[in-house]
Design brief:
InterPro entries: AB_hydrolase_fold. The chain has eight helices and six strands; from the N terminus they run E-H-E-E-H-H-H-H-E-E-H-E-H-H. The protein folds into two domains: 103 residues; 63 residues, no CATH class. Strand 5, helix 6 and strand 6 form a beta-alpha-beta unit. It is globular, with a radius of gyration of 16 Å. Helix 3 packs across helix 4. The chain is of the alpha/beta class. Strands 1-2-5-6 form a four-stranded parallel beta sheet, sandwiched between helices. Strands 3-4 form a two-stranded antiparallel sheet.
């Protein structure tokens, strides 16, 4: 069995770890997702999201493609659709409903047969998962994806597949 989670869905997957089978190997890959976030970090993220929305409240497919050269046109179309569906306040509501943003304690409920990998964006490109948040977690693989931004699933989908399969093989 395999589970893959991106960004804000990471805590959802972490909360489900305790329900995984205790005897069946499971590969879990969490992609550039916040595990812990201080109040200060939440304020910074909220300000950045708000500033981005003020600068360009309705980014187009072309805007996303220009800002993210590794994306396909389809990736940009899905992103535009997602931002339109989510609505302006969705990001803030999601953060407000989870204060403090602290989910690393959920790792303790992981069955021994569940192999967990965190994919981290290249630190030079401002991903959301900070290496120091996961590097010292016992029995967890941490993989930095060179040249990847937060959008690893668009830029390097093959890395996600490779890591999920590696977890199954080991």
């Amino acid at each position: 069995m395999q589970m893959v989670s991106v960004c804000l869905h990471g805590p959802v997957v972490l909360s489900l770890l305790k329900y995984l089978p205790k005897t069946r190997p499971t590969s879990v890959v969490i992609i550039d997702s916040y595990v812990e976030m201080t109040a200060e970090q939440m304020t910074v993220r909220r300000a950045k999201a708000s500033a981005d929305a003020r600068v360009n409240p309705h980014p187009t497919v072309e805007d996303y493609m220009e800002a993210n050269p590794l994306w396909t046109r389809e990736d940009a179309v899905w992103r535009v659709l997602g931002t339109q569906i989510a609505g302006v306040g969705n990001y803030d509501h999601h953060l407000d409903g989870n204060v403090p943003w602290s989910f690393s304690h959920l790792l303790a409920d992981r069955p021994d047969v569940a192999a967990l990998t965190f994919l981290v964006a290249d630190p030079r490109l401002n991903g959301v998962l900070k290496l120091e948040a996961v590097v010292n977690i016992k029995d967890v693989r941490v993989v930095i994806v060179p040249n990847a931004s937060h959008w690893i699933q668009y830029e390097f989908p093959e890395v996600i597949v490779e890591e999920a399969l590696r977890n199954v093989e080991e």
